[in-house]
Design a protein that fits this description.
The complex is a heterodimer. In chain A, 0% of the residues lie in helices and 52% in strands. By secondary structure, chain A is mainly beta. In chain B, the strands form two sheets. In chain B, strands 2, 4, 5, 9, 10 and 11 form a six-stranded mixed beta sheet that branches. In chain B, strands 1-3-8-7-6 form a five-stranded antiparallel beta sheet, with no helix packed on it. In chain B, a hairpin with a 4-residue loop joins strand 9 and strand 10. Chain B has no helices and eleven strands. Chain B is mainly β. Chain B is globular, with a radius of gyration of 13 Å. Classes of the chains: A mainly beta, B mainly beta. At the A-B interface, strand 5, strand 6, strand 10 and strand 11 of A face strand 4, strand 5 and strand 9 of B.
Chain lengths: 114, 110
């Protein structure tokens, strides 16, 4: 079965810190995604990548950047963390994006910015 | 603009009864629809899906119905069990993009 692994389950950071969230998938999926989940707002797409070194902005990219140097790894970077970035961050992957596919999610990282 | 909407933030159902969760969408280009279940502090897990060429898909206690003319889908859980208590997200896809609703928190009362 597909496994999407996020490096941290819980993270506490200070305002202004640079934060790295790491995600690794083990099934050679082409597409990878970063979402954040907030109560009442559902899952909102931050960035996605359909190939190594390729990235596309999602609905809420402001304050974030991403890196995909290897196919299996997709990193989310908060350049200067702010309190409004306190959220549950979810990484996901899908096979190719060309057909009827599903997203596989990691367990999530609950980030608190103080 | 929200392309996928779940208008009921919460739903409570007695154990053994039917749970019906609803979802509406606006984009007629969506061709694949999915339901995910999410427990607190965990990632969403895939539950069931349906392609736009079908109007019903069943998997055990879970059935998804699609009404394309109304741009509406629903998830039926029969019979509901306490372990079904979770947040349910519907999602719609055009291929490499997935759009999620805001979720419905289901509570199944023993």
């Amino acid at each position: 079965d597909v496994k999407v692994t996020q490096s941290s389950r819980y993270l506490v950071k200070r305002t202004g810190e640079k934060v790295f969230l790491e995600c690794v998938q083990d099934m050679d999926h082409e597409n990878m995604f970063w979402y954040r989940q907030d109560p009442g707002l559902g899952l909102r797409l931050i960035y996605f990548s359909y190939d190594v070194k390729m990235k596309e902005k999602g609905d809420i990219p402001e304050g974030y950047s991403v890196s995909r140097e290897k196919k299996e790894r997709f990193s989310l970077i908060l350049e200067s963390a702010s309190t409004n970035q306190t959220s549950m961050y979810l990484c996901a992957s899908s096979l190719t994006g060309t057909g009827y596919e599903k997203l596989f999610f990691g367990s999530g990282t609950q980030l608190s910015v103080l | 603009d929200q392309q996928v909407k779940q208008n009921s933030p919460s739903l409570s159902v007695q154990e053994g009864r039917i749970s019906i969760l609803n979802c509406d969408y606006t984009n007629s280009m969506f061709d694949y629809f999915l339901w995910y279940k999410k427990y607190p502090a965990e990632g969403p897990t895939f539950l069931i899906s349906i392609s736009s060429i079908k109007d019903k898909n069943e998997d055990g206690r879970f059935t998804v119905f699609l009404n394309k003319s109304a741009k509406h889908l629903s998830l039926h859980i029969v019979p509901s069990q306490p372990g079904d208590s979770a947040v349910y997200f519907c999602a719609a896809s055009t291929g490499n993009q997935f759009y999620f609703g805001t979720g419905t928190s289901l509570t199944v009362i023993p």
